[in-house]
């Protein structure tokens, strides 16, 4: 299954505390039966929040893509289909990053790995089998 990691999962990976922060996602990230992706939107969100002092990732945001590559996580670019997608079910938040991640999941046939309470019950959210 193709899975898109929510930004907070990427941040936990970058901080080296995925197992402690999200133990159930640690299995997903190490399970090679899943194709894992991170959105360019998440990298953008991390860089913005780091730049304005709202987030300490513990590594420079520019190094996050290399860290993802070491974990066999591909980066999904944003294209016009993602930007213009009408979601079948809108997210309960007004966060544009959440909307973009869900749009990418819908267009690309993926599920979003998230612990965000606002998104965890969305039809595009990944659920453990």
For the residues shown, what is the average pLDDT?
A: 94
CATH superfamily: 5'-nuclease
Q: What is the level 1 CATH name?
A: Alpha Beta
How would you sum up the major sheet?
4 strands, parallel
> Total domains, how many?
1
Rg from Cα: 14 Å
Shape: globular
Describe, in plain words, how this protein is organized in 3D.
With 129 residues, this protein is of the alpha/beta class. It has a single domain, classed as 3-Layer(aba) Sandwich (Rossmann fold), CATH 3.40.50.1010. 45% of the residues lie in helices and 12% in strands. It has seven helices and four strands. The chain has helices spanning 7-15, 18-21, 23-30, 40-51, 64-70, 80-84, 96-108; strands at 2-5, 35-39, 73-76, 111-113. A four-stranded parallel β-sheet has the order 3-2-1-4. The protein is globular. The model has no long low-confidence stretch (mean pLDDT 94).
Q: Brief description of this entry?
A:
The chain has 129 residues and is α/β, with parallel strands linked by helices.
Helix/strand layout:
Elements: E1 2-5, H1 7-15, H2 18-21, H3 23-30, E2 35-39, H4 40-51, H5 64-70, E3 73-76, H6 80-84, H7 96-108, E4 111-113
Parallel strand pairs: 1-2, 1-4, 2-3
Keywords:
129 residues, alpha/beta, Rossmann fold, 4-stranded parallel sheet, 12% strand, globular
């Amino acid at each position: 299954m193709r899975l898109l990691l929510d930004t907070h999962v990427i941040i936990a990976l970058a901080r080296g505390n995925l197992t402690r922060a999200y133990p159930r996602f640690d299995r997903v990230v190490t399970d090679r039966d899943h194709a894992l992706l991170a959105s360019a939107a998440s990298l953008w969100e991390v860089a913005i929040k780091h730049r304005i002092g709202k987030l300490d990732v513990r590594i420079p945001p520019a190094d996050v893509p290399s860290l993802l590559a070491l974990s066999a996580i591909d980066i999904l670019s944003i294209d016009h289909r993602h930007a213009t997608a009408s979601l079948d079910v809108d997210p309960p938040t007004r966060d544009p990053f959440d909307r973009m991640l869900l749009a990418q999941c819908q267009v690309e046939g993926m599920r979003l790995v998230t612990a965000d309470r606002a998104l965890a019950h969305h039809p595009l959210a990944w659920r453990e089998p």
